[in-house]
Amino acid sequence: MTKIALIVGASGIIGSNLARELISQGWTTYGLARTPKDDVTGLRPVAADLLDPASLATALADVAPTHVFLTSWMRQDTEAENIRVNGAMVRNLLDALAPKQSVQHVALVTGLKHYLGPFDSYARAGSLPPTPLREEQPRLPIENFYYAQEDEVYAAAARDGFSWSIHRPHTIIGQAVGNLMNMGTTLAVYASICKETGRPFQWPGSEAQWNGLSDVTDARVIAKQLVWAATTEAARNQAFNITNGDYFRWSWLWPRLAAWFGVEAAGFDGTVHPLEAAMANDAPLWREMAARYQLNVPELSQLASPWHTDLDLGRPIEVMTDMSKSRKLGFTVYQATEDSFFDLFAQLRTDKLIP
């Protein structure tokens, strides 16, 4: 049977890796964005605004996907606005596709804020869940745009008869220029600035994160899980955590990342040193470095998202994710986390995004 994929967010970290995975397996693959990119060979661009139903109807007139992958979101100033806007994006797309009756499966990517709370109340004392985080843990009694997105998928599935899967990664490690949540590239840019200026590669986060156990999600791993869940009967209508499958302590990994760049590692010293403050004045320096080393992206804000890295590394608890559910159903992909970072750093250097 012909498989036709529509990826929302195909230019992002997850979406671009998913597009490559699907295309390599012979899927006809469309990528929807307001301004589609052409950096994935074989991806068919669809230009549309998810907040404009008329735009969607026109753009999707000749597209009848069998599988829809929602890997994108739009950040707003408040959680109430996040709910309104991101819920509408999912609803508008699935409403536009409903008359075609072609959709067999919809996959939605959210994340660990499902368990830890949204940006407005992220990982606050009194609402912290037990770890390792497991899919059966209940929703928090607070507003969360992830819940709104899920509810839109559930409602459309009940109406149109397709199956669904929800995917909850931890921090995504992978390449994408302009991404709002990009720890790996942020740390690579920070380390490059440290090397250029002689600054120490200072741990920016909390003691709990420095000493506690953690995990992350390689973009290539979640891409494989998305395809697995979309094509595996036993995985239908379920939510899945997705991480690399190993645990680490930042106190172990941080010096290894520093060594890759040849910079001095400075660990937790009793004080949080937010990257957003540390890098606040580095945009002019990065433009100078881009000119000196002939880098392809001279604007720091297009590569680094220190606010989000601070959010992740400043949490007051260790964060581990249980992967038992999908393992039992047959998803066994594993990725060593230090190699996720090193592979990314090498790719960033090859693509002339860091010196």
TrEMBL record:
SUPFAM superfamilies named in the record: NAD(P)-binding Rossmann-fold domains
Domain of life: Bacteria
Residue ranges the record marks as coiled coil: none
Gene3D superfamilies the record matches: NAD(P)-binding Rossmann-like Domain (3.40.50.720)
Family annotation (InterPro entries): NAD(P)-bd_dom_sf, PRISE-like_Rossmann-fold
Record-annotated PRISE-like Rossmann-fold domain positions: 66-355
CDD domains xrefs: 5beta-POR_like_SDR_a (cd08948)
PANTHER family xrefs: 3-OXO-DELTA(4,5)-STEROID 5-BETA-REDUCTASE (PTHR32487)
Name recorded for this polypeptide: SDR family oxidoreductase
Organism: Hymenobacter qilianensis
